[in-house]
Design goal:
Protein name: DUF218 domain-containing protein
Strand order of the largest sheet: 3-2-1-4-5
Pfam families: DUF218
GO cellular component, one term: plasma membrane
CATH architecture of the largest domain: 3-Layer(aba) Sandwich
Largest sheet: 5 strands, parallel
Strand content: 5-15%
CATH class of the largest domain: Alpha Beta
Shape: globular
Mean pLDDT: 95
Helix content: 40-55%
Radius of gyration: 17 Å
Length: 218
């Protein structure tokens, strides 16, 4: 399998999961932008784009490292995101860095504390993430920070273009499958609010698991 191409026989199921995780929120002005750390530098690019559009006055980049990011971002995800945003013209004074979070729950909790400690009141925020992380990030934030209004946003790339931008089809599909599982499991464990999983999404998930896209399953 070409690392940059999605096989035709998998496309419909992968697209079903891709569409499910997109919350389809319309970006609008909020008090803060929060860029969730990952292997995907597109998060920093999109955060900078939204900042330059005037949708928030400050960005928090949050994230330490995971095994999948330590080689690419050896100084930490949030630190590298900040550096890239600076290169894209975001002023240093508009960026806050939270360098310790190691999962999405910590991204939310540590960001909330950082802003509170700085005396920054937040009633609304834009969560900026990988496209397939939107629904899980939303469900996590609504559990841990229920009083804020949450809008999710990701770099607006079609599925095929996103896979090419990452350069690894299996990695993207594995992550999509893993995030789909986490929607249910994390709600059951009390980490996130409940989200409905439609029958067609569950069926697509099961077929992709059967096809071997299992490296990100819990």
């Amino acid at each position: 399998m070409d690392a940059h191409e999605l096989p035709d026989h998998l496309y419909a199921d992968v697209k079903t999961l891709w569409d499910y995780h997109d919350m389809h929120h319309e970006p609008r002005p909020c008090d803060i932008g929060v860029g969730l750390g990952s292997h995907d530098l597109g998060v920093a690019i999109h955060a900078a784009d939204l900042f330059h559009c005037g949708l928030f006055p400050r960005i928090v980049f949050t994230g330490a490292n995971a095994p999948t990011t330590v080689e690419r971002f050896p100084r930490g995800e949030a630190v590298h995101y900040r550096e890239h945003a600076l290169e894209l013209g975001v002023p240093d004074g508009a960026i806050l860095v939270e360098p310790n979070a190691r999962n999405t729950g910590e991204n939310i909790e540590f960001t909330r504390k950082l802003l509170a400690d700085d005396g920054i009141e937040v009633r609304s925020l834009i969560l900026i993430s990988r496209p397939y992380q939107q629904r899980r990030a939303y469900a996590t934030c609504k559990k841990l920070w229920p009083e804020v209004e949450v809008i999710c946003s990701s770099r607006p790339l079609p599925l095929a273009d996103y896979i090419r931008s990452i350069g690894d089809t299996k990695r993207v599909v594995d992550m999509l499958v893993g995030d789909t599982q986490r929607i249910t499991v994390y709600a059951e464990r009390g980490f996130a609010i409940h989200q409905d999983v439609p029958d067609n999404v569950h069926a697509a998930y099961e077929r992709l698991v059967a096809a071997g896209y299992t490296s990100r399953l819990i």
